[in-house]
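Exercise 7 asks you to align residues with tokens for two separate proteins.
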Amino acid sequence: MAAALEPGQRLRPGLAARALLDAWRLVPPQKPVGRLPGSELASGVGASLEMQDRRSYAPGDDVRRLDWGAFARTDQLMVRQYREEVAPKLELLLDVSASMGVDADKAQLAVDLAALFCGLARSAGAPAQLVLLGDQLTLSEPEALDHGVAFESERPVSELLSDAAAHARPTAQRVLVSDLLSEVDASGATRSLAGRTERLSILQVLSPSEVEPEASGPSRLVDAEGGSSLDVIVDRGAIEAYRRRLERLQQSWRESSQRIGGRFLSLTCGPPLTSLCRERLAVEGWLEPR
């Protein structure tokens, strides 16, 4: 396991993230038949009078778009959605909570992925927006990564994702980079994050010790965000129980993403970024060679 980040330490994208911009391109969302070339249709609320669909109400939605007729029929709050044309755009949500910094290699991979996806979007002629999910939600240009990112927020992932959903703007693609190691309703989170976007993509970034922990006997586990601790015996039985819980968590995110037309992929830091692009992101259909 790599050492944790030092207090105040900031990480910048590595050279590999920039070098790979000439080798790969993003696989765009599939466009509905009949769309005009060069345009994207977001599923957010727009000025068009053509209603596209309805979806469940999520905190932060415009209450003026509530469909009271649907509520009367189903007893569920539904929001009307309208076709809204927006320029192709990528919005990158980067989790900068303290748990992301417990392993420096894990945090570095998260920064490199953020730089890579933003850079590839721009290479395709699309604007890219960086959103740092920390103590405050910070909207930045991707160049902010060059000034370094500190992973110090003590807010739980559930709160970070709620903020992101509440401030979501129309965009063609929304990409979340996080370890997702928190108690979160994956189904509700994906529905909220998928609002006002053509495609939601979720990248889970983990350290090797989070994927394959080693037996260490009596240990004290400390919550990187809340600071609470728990004394446990990390033996073979505890590790097997942890693995099953991690598998259930990942399956929940994967199925929730697929239900709303999105996608989920878990990456473990360690292999070079070049290998992860070739052996994981390209194989799973996220990237394609230029």
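Second protein for Exercise 7:
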Amino acid sequence: MAPTKQTKQIGKNISATLEGTTLTLVIDISKDYGLSSSGKSRIIASSEGNQAAPGDAEIKIGLNIYRRA
């Protein structure tokens, strides 16, 4: 039997998929959500705080992807 596969969007530009015991995050690095609050970087993706992984609320994801402004 194939492992259960669950996917959910997390914050901005992050797709999280849990399949069995493997968590995969997909981020489109061409996205630009503007400047950070400090103005030093441009936001590509953010979980916007700690978010529950798909299918397992005890596992949390906290992630920021950015480039220099």
